[in-house]
Description:
CATH architecture of the domain at 152-292: 2-Layer Sandwich
Number of helices: 6
Strand order of the largest sheet: 3-4-7-5-6
Shape: elongated
Mean pLDDT: 75
Helix content: 40-55%
Largest sheet: 5 strands, mixed
Order of helices and strands: HHEEHEEHEHEHE
Low-confidence stretches: 62-116
Distance between the termini: 134 Å
Radius of gyration: 44 Å
CATH class of the domain at 152-292: Alpha Beta
Amino acid sequence: MARRHPRTEPEDEGPSRERWLLTYSDMITLLMVLFIVLFALGQTDIRKFNAFKDSFRAIQQPVPNTPPGGPGVLSAPSVIALEEQNAFALLNRSSANSSYGGSQQYPYKSGKAASGQQRPGQLPAGQHQAGQADQAAQAALREYQALSRAEAEMQAALARAGLADQVAFRIDQRGLVVTILTDRILFPVDSAQLQPEGLRILDALAPVLAALPNLVDVEGDTDNQPIRGGPYPDNWALSAARAVSVVEDLIHQHGISPYRLQATGLSDTRPLVPNNSAQHQAENRRVEIVVFSTTVATP
């Protein structure tokens, strides 16, 4: 009988023991690629930063021939302004070869004429200013005539109602001022309740006010005597309440737009005459309806 020999496992070959080196080398290669990419990105950021720094320095530089200590960055022309000038020069050169006239030029920049040049149809500076002054004078004259017509219409309406002697008129820098004395006409003493005669006055004035486009301020004025008793603690509250009463009547009874009206309480701060007598104090107790001129700024 043949004798069997025991099987033996083959020993590992030498190269198989070095397989970990492949993984290690792959990892080192990836790390090297990562560091190269990071280095490249870092170099790109530096170049961008240098470009930004150079451009910012160019913007800060003043225009040539600017004297030392002259205008700073905000007031001196910048690189952008110079580029704008170059663009207009280029436009002029290109338009010279265009089919629209050959020698057509564009001497204007930012709405202003170039030095020594004038827009077509534009008056010289002196004539232009004189023209503006003439236009302003004509506008003021038209406004004065419109306010005078409104005054005449109000006076006619008051005359028809038999109230012509109860209201005074004047035209000043604000516009048309209609003055109504308050004593026994508009309100009782220390009260903001409209009297029947005061309501009749407003009935006569309101149609003319409603037909005008002007803003209207109703101002309440008192004398300098302190209030004794009543619902109002002082002349400020009383003058304001009286102005509001007139405004509310113009709105609710005569349909005048509330967006055109305002009420102002002035107490005794705007006297017509010194408060040194009973007659003068009565003149200062009043309500004034101010029809603002459209040619001046309103408060």
